[in-house]
Amino acid sequence: MAYSTNDPSPPVAFLMGPTGSGKTDLAVELVERLPLEIINVDSALVYDGLDIGAARPAPEVLEKAPHRLMGFRDPAKPYSAAEFRRDALREIADIQAGGRVPLLVGGTMLYFSTLVRGLAPLPEADPKVRARLDAEARELGWPALHRRLAEVDPETAARLGPRDRQRLQRALEVHELTGIPLSRHHRVHRKDAKLLDNSGESPPDFPFTLVSMALAPASRAVLHERIALRFRKMLEQGLVEEVEGLLRRGDLDPELPALRAVGYRQVRQHLEGQYDRREMEERAIAATRQLAKRQLTWLRKWPQLHWIDSDAPDRLEQAQGLLESAVEWVFS
């Protein structure tokens, strides 16, 4: 039995977890057992050419279990959380129209949060303001604009690097157009989102039956070891050569999100001569472990989340059971 497009709250499943926890393998196994289709929720995997460092599934895996929203964006064009929400809602609707269940898989927690809770209401981009800010940056440099942002929005400036041009430009643009710091916009929105969390309800524009699962090893030490082994395997597979190829394009600014992704950033800095290969490896592993820590911290705040031990021999059965019990009327 499947569901029809007239059902008031069709199901959507999330499979979240820290990097290196085995989410893709579990998702593929679930697709082989249940009428699911995968939507990628990894901010690096949306970019074309980020394969090894983003752990893109092998072609034979994608043939068995295609992933939507993967490898479709040129790395020269930054992809935002707002764009992800628009694209993911489109793919969810398309999957549901076929009577199947969307399974959103990844570790980009901002994407998951934005999809469910939406974004703070902000003004649309203003081409004139952006052109003027770009001109000022060319004359004065982005660090100077970062100092300007620190004067009007120290909270946002503190979390942005002095050369993070995309986010600096947006923060200055929002303040100029509204007279309100971007951080205050987000603070108000987070307060509203917390009320939704406490009520256990999704916003009206995310009217789905949501099943949220998180996959992670019980031991932090085990996760750390897997992260190290995984990155060293990426190096063996040719990650350095992959980054060299991206840099040879000549049109990819180092501050673009694609080249700032964990792993890619450290390899790029190594190729620029900032440190040797051994230090690059150590820095990349440390940065990936920090990313995993942030992901786990974020996941602990997610409401009604089902945790699955990635080392449990019955992890597949656990995940399948959660899905079947939560949306029994779909899978029966």
Mean pLDDT: 89
CATH superfamily of the largest domain: P-loop containing nucleotide triphosphate hydrolases
Q: Please, how many domains?
A: 2
What sequence of helices (H) and strands (E) makes up the elements? EHEHEHEHHHHHHEHHHHHEHH
CATH class of the largest domain: Alpha Beta
Summarize the structure in words.
The chain is an alpha/beta fold. The protein has 2 domains: 11-118 and 203-331, Rossmann fold (3-Layer(aba) Sandwich), CATH 3.40.50; 127-189, Histone, subunit A (Orthogonal Bundle), CATH 1.10.20. 56% of the residues lie in helices and 9% in strands. The protein has 16 helices and 6 strands. The chain has helices at residues 23-33, 59-64, 81-97, 109-117, 127-140, 142-152, 154-159, 165-178, 182-199, 220-237, 239-248, 257-260, 264-271, 277-299, 315-326, 328-331, and strands at 11-16, 36-40, 67-68, 101-105, 209-216, 305-309. A 6-stranded parallel beta sheet has the order 3-2-4-1-5-6, with helices on both faces.
Which features does this protein show?
Histone, subunit A, 6 strands, alpha/beta, six-stranded parallel β-sheet, Rossmann fold, 332 residues, 2 domains
Describe the SSE topology.
Blueprint: E1 11-16, H1 23-33, E2 36-40, H2 59-64, E3 67-68, H3 81-97, E4 101-105, H4 109-117, H5 127-140, H6 142-152, H7 154-159, H8 165-178, H9 182-199, E5 209-216, H10 220-237, H11 239-248, H12 257-260, H13 264-271, H14 277-299, E6 305-309, H15 315-326, H16 328-331
Parallel strand pairs: 1-4, 1-5, 2-3, 2-4, 5-6
Helix pairs in contact: 1-15, 3-4, 5-6, 5-8, 6-8, 10-14, 11-13, 13-14
